[in-house]
Write a structure and sequence with these properties.
single chain; alpha/beta; Rossmann fold; 9-stranded mixed sheet; 7-stranded parallel sheet; 31 helices; elongated; RM_Methyltransferase; SAM-dependent_MTases_sf; methyltransferase activity; EC 2.1.1.72
Amino acid sequence: MNAQPSYSEFLHAKIRLAEQQGFVVDPATINPLLKPMTQAIVPWACRGGRRALFLRFGLHKTSTQLEVIRQCLMHAGGHGLIVVPLGVRHEFFLEVEARHPNIRLKFIRRPDEMEAPNVIGAEQVVIHLTNYETVRDGKIDPSLFTAASLDEAACLRGFGGTKTFREFMATFAGDDRAAGVKRDGVRYRFVATAIPDPNEYIELLAYAAFLGVMEVGEAKTRFFKRDSEKADKLTIHPHKEEEFWLWVASWALFVQMPSDLGFDDTGYELPPLDIRWHEIPSDHAAAGSERDGQARMFANAAFGVTEASREKKRSLQARIDKMLELRAEDPAAHRILWHDLEDERRAIEASIPDVRSVWGTLDEDTKEKRVVGFARGEFAELATKPVINGSGCNFQHHCAWNIYLGIGFKFHDFFQSLFRTQRFGQQHQVRVDLIYTEAERETRRTLERRWRQFETQAAKMSALIRRFGLAEQAIEGALRRSMGVERIEASGDGYLVAHNDCVEETRGMEADSVDLIVTSIPFSTQYEYTPSFNDFGHTDDDAHFWAQMDYLIPELYRILKPGRVACIHVKDRIVPGGINGMGFQTVSPFSDDCVARFRAHGFAFLSRITVGTDVVRENNQTYRLGWTEQCKDGTRMGNGMPEYVLKFRKPPTDRSNGYADLPVTKAKPDFVSVIDGQPVSPGDDGFDGRRVRPVAGTGYSRGRWQLDAHGVWRSSGDRPLLPEELARLIRIEPKFVYRGWKAWCEGNVYQHEAHVAFTEALDEAGRLPPTFMIAPPHSSHPEIWTDVARMRTLNMLQQRKGQEQHLCPLQFDIVDRAILQHSMPGETVFDPFGGIMTVPYCALQLGRQARAVELNPDYFRDGVTYCEMAAGKGHAPSLFDLLEAEANLEAAE
């Protein structure tokens, strides 16, 4: 068996950057005719072996691909392939003719058209071109090639959605899902496209899977929140955003200008697009009606696809008229007439007899002849669709005018088409006229919003490139900076809590120093509470999570006193059908894994306490127990998932009788005798000493024992408030901050610096009002009144971006029962995952000593406040307080 790596090595192994699977390029062999920027990119791509080249429009993407594939063939021999969209292959032939004397291109549609394999070391190579449709239809097997590049791979989305997109690219990895086989994939793989939409995360994940960097499912789990209704609708965890883009930067190069890589921008700095929007009136008389028959007052294309299509048809002639009006400004100018519908194409052709059109069913030779002819300036006007010629074509040398006969919601196609003319080599300012109707205002707003989002995210990626350049080590170094934590300790009467990694903290604790452990462990990869790699939720899967627990559990065993108990709160996990591959949700027995892991490290398993949960609430979270789905097919339905408290015991030193080294003893209650239902004392007349009953409220009763021993516990559900809930309560009931501070002041010696620190923490959290003093200096002197708080206004909105709630926060009564049953007053209760310090709070309330650790700085800060309140014998606001306050507010309104 391999030795366990050190904890530091384990954490550093969490940094997931794309592996280098390529080779080192001799700079002397790079084509000297290429631009300096391109000559710098080629070695980076070849060193990685599987990389994405996201080069903004006009930054020589074609030349870069050609040289990268040439270098791969020189290094390894064999066949090279570049897959291109329809109508784009001519750009590669023109580029080879201009700058690549050591490359010969051949367009193929079948394997028998392939040339002989290239020989290792040969400077003159043959590279094959083919269309996406050829690969999609299975006419060419990608596994025949040593190196392959996908040019403008985003066009695959037009093949029928992300499923086809991913299955297509899986064939290059040797994963032929249709045939059910797995073969050796293409050794060197590349993607080259002009800045994919950074907001379309699923596209980036598909590229990562194609390159063999990370599977789509794994990347979803690591970086994104899930939408249970739409599998590919992803929202990135805000606290994982930087890590995500650094990970992307390890395998994808986003370049917007040569200066991003330190080169000269001369010739690339073009004037901004001249954007002109033209709104034409809509026919509101044809606005239609709602589903319930209610007539609409205004036409609105945003009502849906059908309504948008109707609006296009109703407004066609008016849009054609506007297009002709714009053309009349300069009838002889070269321009592209972009459209989306065949009816629009036919209307353009009818109104402009000399226009040349390109459409989907046009034969390939004619299509290419017209596209090349327009690019060379042989005729003035080309009518085409963004989905056909919006990618890969270079129209900048003779055209600087685009007219869009209509607009739609397909941002990527629209944005790509804009830059067929706005690119390196353009000598004029590019004009863009966009025609839309009054009913399409929302469509315009959506396009403009997504455009702003695109530019913002692209600028972030550009900043990463400027920051790290082409050095993978610099990116890894940036990720390493999120490793580790600076320990902070807070202590008071009866408690000590630390902001730290729980493994590191427990290693510094004395052996046999804890009387009871009560904790709710993270539920594997379900949530990440911090961006730190120390976070136990920052793991790849259950096995990876338990591998990190293997560093903690032995320390828990070491610090627990012999014979004492560890109570571990867990819950089994739901596995979505898209992850388990079964098409329906299943259960991961996380609690069983927990039992096995603790037993493996020496703990004895005592019992499993079942805590019932609300099945309706669970269904709202997982959509797996719905009544409608049960009626459709009862075989899909499982049952509600309870929570569990698993009890483990560290064996005592003396195992002959099984008692703890220091037993947790309980006094039985006082008893009184009963005659005819009336209690009597031993000195009373008639006492026979035979019938007795316990005195209520004294000692540990038989009734309490029966409930404690039962395997099912009920819970009220009450618990401490999470920080964002506390912020809500404070907005409704600001008295809780005031009262908590007052209680602490009355129970502690005044410390000016502690007072300042408290107000600063309130201010940082957005809880310090600017119009009154919520934490004034309090005094116990009878002549000094400090109980009057003049709260005129209060703005306590707390921004909690990216913070995730625990799957099932631990409740007060569950913790209380564990503490009362398994510890005695004055003993130490420890929680390695302190969170908002529920366990220390309960322990202090019950007269125990408390110790805990928490990695999340926000949870730690608020948890310290809870500990201060409990140590001062005050009461913190709870979930029930919040519900009551919100109910009162609703009633008042």
